[in-house]
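Attaching the record inline, Q. Sequence:
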Amino acid sequence: MPDERCLFCAIAAGERPAHVVVSDGVAVAFLDTRPVFKGHVLVVPLTHVETLADLPVPMVGPFFERVRAVAAAVESGLAAAGTFVAANNRVSQSVPHLHVHVVPRNRKDGLRGFFWPRTRYDDSAEAETYARRVREALGPAPPVS
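Structure, as predicted:
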């Protein structure tokens, strides 16, 4: 059930703007507004849960199928050598709604350990270009389980 005070629930409902790369009955994935690297995507379940432990067991598989697909799409769509996939539970969780970070990675990209320097998109058009690349790499929407 969506939480009317939650930023990510508002994005999932289309009530707040975001550069969405995929949305279906399980999850919505959109660009982080303060990306570690350009193309950094957040994948959030449509169901409002704060942590991974709160995600109902029947949703874990379908949700992580979406995370897996987005990780592959970020690599292929952005020509990244790999991805960093992570989730915070409460500590360092800036929005109290489960979200998985999918960050494009390349060798010698400057990311060291868990120090995450942030960057910004030059403008909305540049952000949309990154979102489109990941959307295109995802291909048709995955089936809802």
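The two ends are 18 Å apart (CA to CA). The chain has a mean pLDDT of 91.

More tomorrow.
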